[in-house]
Amino acid sequence: MGVVVRNLQKVVPLRRARLRKDVNTLRHILGIHKFDLGVVCVDNRRIQHINNIYRKKDEPTDVLSFPFHEGLRPGKMPCPLHRDELNLGDIFLGVEFVMRQCQEESTDLHEALTVVTAHGICHLLGYRHETEEEWSEMLQKESYILREYNRLTGQHLLPMMKPCHQERTLSHR
């Protein structure tokens, strides 16, 4: 199966082929190309609903990750026993939320979606940012992924995570 990209929103024009290509590049960098991954693009109403159900936060957000393999330690790969366990999980992208941020910051939507997707994949692989140590570890991983992505593509993407001494704005899982 590989990567499935579903666009369940109509607010923002989206090039799914480009997003799929970028996700496949991220999977290659991380060595997780044998694992299936779902990417679901949604509007503010839907991501707010999901965020409220699963995180008790009644607000839209940029990304929510739902790992197939619960309890993974950061840096450890899942060890599937069967073919149907070759699944990392699903990432819900709040495309409308990300678009509004891009408008405020004058940044490219598809580049921002790639960065947000990299962040979501980190969560699927067990990375968190609840403590300072986790924050630092996830920032390192996200920085590595995007450095490699930039090297392969010629882009200049930066992590959405900021060093822990800067203002934290991330509120998702």
Number of helices: 5
The strands making up the biggest β-sheet line up spatially as: 1-2-4-3
Percent of residues in beta strands? 5-15%
Order of SSEs, N→C?
EHEHEEHHH
Structure classification: alpha/beta
Helix content range of the residues, please? 40-55%
User: What's the Cα radius of gyration?
Assistant: 15 Å
Total beta strands: 4
Strand count, sense and barrel status of the largest sheet are: 4 strands, mixed
CATH homologous superfamily designation: Metalloproteases ("zincins"), catalytic domain
Mean pLDDT: 91
What CATH architecture label applies?
A: 3-Layer(aba) Sandwich
Distance between the termini: 25 Å
> What are the segments in which pLDDT stays under 50 over at least 5 consecutive residues?
165-171
Q: Which class in CATH terms? A: Alpha Beta
Estimate nothing, just give the exact number of structural domains.
Answer: 1
User: Any idea what the shape is?
Assistant: globular
GO molecular function: endonuclease activity; metal ion binding; metalloendopeptidase activity
InterPro entries: MetalPrtase_cat_dom_sf_prd, YbeY, YbeY_CS
Organism: Hippocampus comes (Tiger tail seahorse)
Family: Belongs to the endoribonuclease YbeY family.
